[in-house]
């Protein structure tokens, strides 16, 4: 029995993975670190900038996936956005460039890392979004949501949620999810989200969910 990222696989699943590996050499995952540059994203109650948390988690996830021999494409690896220099609408240009990069190498999955915020500071918990009507996107989102609950916060009762409006979800060709790792508007969760130990738990949970999806899809 083969174990990948702590997930036990039967002989048939192992055969399927080995067959796909032989055909394509390796899996490819695109990691999108939301916001960047002069777009900070959400601002936490203690001043934490979403763009910085997103990038830190995305880079850690990249390392974890590469240890599993998964090829990783990053939309950004530093503090910048992807907008064209002469763009009249920087946000739209940034989103279009991100989608172009996500689609360019036909990854097996796209993981967009974000942090949430809400007017009620008691609201907390990670949640994964997928494009409404995408069977593969739903499978990926549900596996990630389950792994986040099992490995990070068993008290989190959120479920993977369909969305038909997010630009990235609508315009990518690969199964794509947006992972809202937590709420910067919740003081306790904000403190956790900037903690290296908690980030490691998040990344390990995401890695397990991604590997489970790659085995099954």
From TrEMBL:
Its EC number is 3.5.1.28. Residues 99-211 form the MurNAc-LAA domain. Keywords: Hydrolase. Pfam families: Amidase_3. SUPFAM superfamilies: Zn-dependent exopeptidases (SSF53187). One of its GO terms (molecular function) is N-acetylmuramoyl-L-alanine amidase activity. GO terms for cellular component: outer membrane-bounded periplasmic space. SMART domains: Ami_3. It comes from the Bacteria. GO terms for biological process: peptidoglycan catabolic process. This is N-acetylmuramoyl-L-alanine amidase LytC. It comes from Eubacterium ramulus. The gene is lytC.
């Amino acid at each position: 029995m083969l174990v990948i990222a702590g997930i036990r696989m039967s002989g048939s699943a192992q055969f399927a993975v080995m067959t796909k590996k032989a055909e394509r050499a390796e899996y490819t995952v695109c990691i999108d670190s939301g916001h960047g540059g002069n777009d900070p994203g959400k601002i936490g109650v203690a001043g934490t900038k979403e763009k910085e948390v997103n990038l830190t988690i995305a880079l850690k996830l990249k390392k974890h996936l590469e240890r599993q021999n998964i090829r990783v494409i990053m939309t950004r690896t530093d503090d910048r956005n992807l907008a064209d220099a002469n763009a009249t609408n920087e946000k739209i240009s940034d989103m279009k460039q991100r989608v172009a990069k996500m689609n360019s190498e036909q990854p097996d999955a796209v993981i967009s890392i974000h942090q949430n915020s809400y007017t009620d500071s008691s609201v907390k918990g990670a949640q994964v979004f997928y494009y409404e009507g995408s069977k593969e996107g739903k499978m990926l989102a549900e596996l990630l949501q389950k792994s986040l609950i099992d490995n990070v916060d068993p008290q989190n009762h959120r479920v993977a949620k369909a969305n038909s409006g997010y630009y990235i979800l609508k315009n990518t060709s690969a199964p794509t999810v947006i992972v809202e790792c937590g709420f910067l508007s919740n003081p306790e969760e904000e403190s956790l989200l900037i903690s290296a130990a908690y980030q490691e738990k998040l990344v390990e949970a995401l890695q397990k969910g991604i590997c489970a999806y790659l085995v099954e899809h």
